[in-house]
Design brief:
Layout (H helix, E strand, L loop, with lengths): L5 E6 L8 H14 L4 E6 L1 H7 L4 H17 L7 E5 L4 H10 L5 H9 L8 H7 L7 H17 L4 E4 L1 H4 L2 H15 L8 E4 L25 H8 L5 H10 L3 H5 L9 H14 L1 H5 L4 H29 L7
Parallel strand pairs: 1-2, 1-4, 2-3, 4-5
Helix pairs in contact: 4-7, 4-15, 7-9, 10-13
Length: 318
């Protein structure tokens, strides 16, 4: 593994415990990616604090649940790092500098297409946002993670459908900074797209927390949720995503589920999700992992900050 070949994998902790959709879209691939990259897992807890104001008292626990599940999936902290954005104020300085190169009309268009831009007034009220868009809400969700990724000098960026939308912002930032500098200070990372960006939930719709299988769920909960499945297309989708195509091919997509097919899926999930049920780690151990990751990330981001300031003819005093 080359130390200069960094991959950033972005995660939103707002739902807390990861579900089957999170696992097949990104988490399942991390062990393989660690063979080729120095992987840095970014848990964007600052985004959660800023956007879901009514849930701030729950976000620390949800962040720790997210980290626990990533570790349980087999992520090796000896070959990579886990960081949370609230521990990296240096990335906010870099975001401010790089936002100088994002035109307002461009930013406004990206915002309109974002999660925040699509919120209805009653949605805003439910999560604690004001009636109108704040400046922080307008800026950070769109440019926070892209600036951090560029600051880490990542050569690859892993994410699902929402995360992939950051690529155009990184391209815009990199192009503008490099043009004024005359050299490649910033390099837009290559997108490592999720192998399974879409996974059917229990009801056949896109999987979210309400219609999911939680990775760390106990066996009774797994059985109860699988028993709510009515159509084989869900079972087929899950078998394919979990690398069991032979089992998927044995089912007819047009048929309804049977007690036997649900029993087999339950047994299959209970077995493959066993590492998540059995994994144990203390909050103190998680904090040590985060402090080590923050120290490493700060060194990379500070160097990028210096380079960008030099390109902008802004003095540095370190």
């Amino acid at each position: 593994m080359s130390e200069s070949k960094i991959l950033v994998s972005g995660h939103n902790p707002i739902t807390g415990p990861r579900h089957l959709g999170h696992f097949v879209s990104t988490m399942k691939e991390l062990r393989g990616l660690q063979k080729d990259y120095e992987c840095i897992i970014v848990i964007d807890d600052l985004l959660a604090y800023l956007i879901f104001c009514n849930m701030r008292d729950k976000i620390i626990n949800r962040t720790f649940f997210t980290i626990r599940d990533i570790l349980a999936s087999g992520f090796d902290t000896k070959r990579g790092h886990i960081i949370i954005t609230s521990m990296l104020p240096e990335s906010l300085e870099l975001m401010t500098l790089l936002n100088s190169f994002i035109d307002f009309p461009y930013h406004e268009r990206i915002h309109r297409e974002s999660f925040c831009g699509n919120l209805k007034p009653f949605h805003r009220s439910q999560i604690g946002l004001g009636k109108y868009t704040s400046m922080t809400e307008f800026v950070y969700p769109i440019t926070g993670l892209p600036a951090l990724t560029l600051g880490l000098k990542a050569s690859a960026f892993q994410g699902g459908e929402a995360i992939a939308g950051y690529m155009s912002t990184m391209e815009e930032m990199s192009k503008s900074v490099n043009e004024i500098n005359g050299d490649k200070i910033l390099i837009t990372p290559q997108l490592v797209y999720a192998n399974n960006p879409f996974l059917c939930g229990i009801d056949g719709k896109y999987m979210i927390q309400e219609n999911s299988i939680i990775l760390s769920a106990d066996t009774n909960d797994i059985e109860a949720r699988v028993n709510k499945i009515h159509y084989n297309k869900v079972l087929i989708d899950w078998y394919n995503a979990l690398d069991n195509p032979n089992k998927a091919h044995s089912l007819n997509i047009h048929d309804t589920t049977t007690n036997d097919s649900k029993k087999e899926m339950t047994e299959f999930l209970i077995e493959i999700l066993k590492p998540f049920r059995d994994f144990h780690i203390t909050n103190g151990d998680i904090m040590k992992i985060l402090k080590d990751g923050a120290q490493y990330a700060k060194s990379l981001i500070n160097q990028t900050n210096k380079e960008v300031k030099m390109a902008m003819n802004i003095p540095t005093f370190t």
